[in-house]
Amino acid sequence: MADTTDSPLAPRGAGRAIAHFWMILGVIIVAFPVYYVFIASTHSTSTILRPPLPLLPGPEAAANYGEAFSGRIGQIGGVSLWRLLGNTTLVAMGIAIGKIAISMASAYAIVFFRFPLRMACFWLIFITLMLPVEVRIQPTYKVMVDLGLIDTYPGLILPLIASATATLLFRQFFMTIPDELLEAARVDGAGPWRFFKDILWPLSLTNVAAIFVIQFIYGWTQYLWPLLVTNSNEMNTIVIALKKMVSFTDAETPWNLVMVTSVLAILPPILVVVLMQRWFVKGLVETEK
Amino acid sequence: MRRTVFPHKLLPWLLLAPQLAITLIFFYWPAAQAFRQSVLREDAFGLKTTFVGLANFRKVLGDPAYLNALQVTVIFSALVAFFAMGIALFLAVQAEKVIRGKGFYRTLMIWPYAVAPAIAGMLWLFMFNPSFGTLAWPLRQMGISWNPLLNSNHAMTLVVAASVWKQISYNFLFFVAGLQAIPRSLLEAAAIDGATRRHSFWTIVFPLLAPTTFFLLVVNTVYALFDTFGIIHAVTSGGPGKSTETLVYKVYNDGFVNLIMGDSAAQSVILMLIVIALTAFQFRFIERRVHYG
């Protein structure tokens, strides 16, 4: 009997059970490292150092988290986790919001105005797709030194907010706005600001949310750039601080606090992705293709 | 082409100004510097620079350490792309088969996307480090002298595993979307003709997924080339020996640790050419797809 509601790929009975088995195995492999570090963060260093680690949370959670937040972690110069989380949040938000702002503005200019060198500007932005920070680190670093941006928030944020991808996306979206809409707005006497504020912005919200999630994650997970432009412990992002804390050769490494810091470095972006899943998945799959 | 536009002449420049300024200061100027430095050489005291033409490139390309990094990069990228895409495709096909719990599985599958590469590397190192890693422990009990900090094959396995783990989420989402776009009627027709599920996967589903697969191939290659720097830096620092030193790691190492500017700049320029080639490949391919699609 044909089952028209199912996907033709969907088997029944045993086949479906096997599919569930593989999915559960996949999910366990994918989630295990995160679970492992969470469990480790609730045990004492001596338990962590004596494998195998128990599979259930231990009794040291309050002590570990309390100590980690007290700001006495010597390896990172006694900077408190609040400060590190604050730095990272600021950088991630700065990159996400900054990118959205400047790329929306430039896409707006390119789509809704006519001026000389318009396409030249577009290509100038487009080509930066081919210049990821990794291929120009040394000279970019020198620019930062010359501008005095080492160990500053602008130094952590500015070089990462110019993005061709976001500009391309907004340009593509703006081009789908029907001419009639703009005509009607202009007949009603709306200028560029009014048209943007009352018509374009509300229509762009889904795209903005999608780009926000993707760029927030991008900002939060940065590594090479913060590694280069921060020298002072006070300016570290949590990812860099974590790297500084971990040493397998140093007997003094406070593994319980390392695990707490790992959990705190992972949790905020995971929450953003999971809570904003709808926009994130749509944005990722539809915009990058 | 848009017929109606705003008549302003100055306003668009003001709107473009922030992006153009950042692009020029942080992209074009440094890229130009990289090109300039790649044809110059500094003397030992950094007092005098001389124009040396393509000598830096010849030196880099003739350097066994660079060729080693190139080889490491090719092997590493191939392994990461193959496993990250293979596992994700397998799981996406399984996800397509289940009816209930799809959303639940997806929610759990997308976590690693949000984890920083450097932290992904550290998580795997926690689990598999020789002294207290919970998953290294059974390996040792089984008599395998597992030590990714000393054995180069073990080190490579670990960085590949961490890189694959981090990338599965992304590939999974794209394969799920790709599978959903395959016309149901084709599969039903094949089923009526008596094709087995396995047969219709390889003759219908897999070929129709080609656009997604090619797109992901480019994305995964770029990921393996550049985004895995954090994983390698945090887990192995290119070691043991130079067995996990990729091209990007070497640019960083020569430019910031060994301070050989000319070489580092020449390497940057070579990397830039690789990115340009990949991007061109991607766009050519996308263009073709638009024609046929």
From TrEMBL, chain A:
It is found in: Cell inner membrane; Cell membrane. GO terms for biological process: transmembrane transport. It comes from the Bacteria. Signal peptide: none annotated. One of its GO terms (cellular component) is plasma membrane. Residues 85-276 form the ABC transmembrane type-1 domain. It is a multi-pass membrane protein. The chain crosses the membrane at residues 21-39, 90-113, 120-137, 157-178, 199-218, 255-276. Keywords: Cell inner membrane, Cell membrane, Membrane, Transmembrane, Transmembrane helix, Transport. The keyword Transmembrane applies. SUPFAM superfamilies: MetI-like. InterPro entries: MetI-like, MetI-like_sf. Part of the ABC transporter complex UgpBAEC involved in sn-glycerol-3-phosphate (G3P) import. Probably responsible for the translocation of the substrate across the membrane. Belongs to the binding-protein-dependent transport system permease family. PANTHER family: ABC TRANSPORTER PERMEASE PROTEIN MG189-RELATED-RELATED, SN-GLYCEROL-3-PHOSPHATE TRANSPORT SYSTEM PERMEASE PROTEIN UGPE. The complex is composed of two ATP-binding proteins (UgpC), two transmembrane proteins (UgpA and UgpE) and a solute-binding protein (UgpB). This is sn-glycerol-3-phosphate transport system permease protein UgpE.
From TrEMBL, chain B:
It is a multi-pass membrane protein. It is found in: Cell inner membrane; Cell membrane. Keywords: Cell inner membrane, Cell membrane, Membrane, Transmembrane, Transmembrane helix, Transport. Residues 70-282 form the ABC transmembrane type-1 domain. Pfam families: BPD_transp_1. GO terms for cellular component: plasma membrane. The chain crosses the membrane at residues 12-31, 69-92, 104-127, 155-179, 200-226, 265-286. PROSITE patterns: ABC_TM1. One of its GO terms (biological process) is transmembrane transport. The complex is composed of two ATP-binding proteins (UgpC), two transmembrane proteins (UgpA and UgpE) and a solute-binding protein (UgpB). Belongs to the binding-protein-dependent transport system permease family. Part of the ABC transporter complex UgpBAEC involved in sn-glycerol-3-phosphate (G3P) import. Probably responsible for the translocation of the substrate across the membrane. This is sn-glycerol-3-phosphate transport system permease protein UgpA. It comes from Paracoccus laeviglucosivorans.
